[in-house]
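User: Please predict the structure of the protein below. I'd like the answer in structure-token form so I can feed it into my own downstream comparison script.

Assistant: Understood. Taking the following sequence of 365 residues as input:
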Amino acid sequence: MEEGFQKKALKRLIIFIAVQMAFVGFFVWLTDPFYQYHAPFFGMDAVLNDRDNQMPGTIRNFEYDSVLVGSSLAENFDSSFLDQTYNCSTLKIIRASGSVADLLYYLEMAQEERALKNVFWCLDISSVEASTEVTLYGQDTPRYLHTKTVLDDLPYLFNKEILMEKIPSMLAYAHAGLNTGGKAYNWARGKEFGEAWAMRAYDRGNIGPSALSGDRDYTVETVLIAENIALLTRQVEAHPETKYRFLIPPLSLLWWDCAYVNGELEQRIYALDQAVSALLCLENVEVYYFQNEESIVCNLDYYMDMVHYSPDISQYMLDAMAAGRNRVEAGNWKEAVAGLQKLTAWISAEGIFVYYGTEETFDEP
């Protein structure tokens, strides 16, 4: 009798565990904080605050006809402004320090799911020099997020962090209206912008022994630039029905001076020039250029570090694009490059000392 009782107890325990597991899996599926299976139910707003984990699911399951592509420099753009201005529905496609290859991986995924009217791309100069290998898989971004099958989703459906942290956080953010709608992935809340914060990101006195010597070998970078530009132009040419609008964002005088003291200035300008020149040859491309905006670039009140600008600057760029300002074309692009060369020369000869002081000296090799 005791043996029979133990078998019944074991059976009940197994059934209890199975029911609990089924409930947990169903609850995660229902709330779905990474949007692996569906857009939000019950009229809830989508909370988008975990770009790496939420990107594949939103691309597969959300409704959109346009995308906003870029690195963290694009996250503070209000995509609802694009929707209203261009009569579209825009999904943000973001990758931190996004290389061309990583962003194209997501963009091509979106193009498999939807016919895109517009691609708005905030193009970092550094992304044009990045590796052409896709780097999206890692410990922080599990591969199962990138597959359509549910057979590899057990780590998602039965996950303590998902259940105890991600879902409560999503519900709290939705209730507060944070990182919803056009504010998807916006990181500016609680951040400080201004000279004191921006200066912490750059130590000008730390100049390497070969800086400014002009003897650096950029063969590898030059090859990568050509490969990345080829990736971009092939993407645009393959989708003539889509309008591509590239924005070249304003990186601060700190970033440009850093390139100067490390002997990288000419290479950075070369990368920008080559990329924009190639894009301007394509019929379905518009390029909007903000790097020569001296009143922004040389005012650290707009920055929190060498590259990240305030949401006000993000909106300024969208306003300018909507009004047709700051657009460069093949006929005036070389003039813009000459302007950048003049501006960066002034930054390292004079402009940087507004913040560092003229009494500071730096020994050139």
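That's the full token string. The first helix runs from residue 2 to 31.
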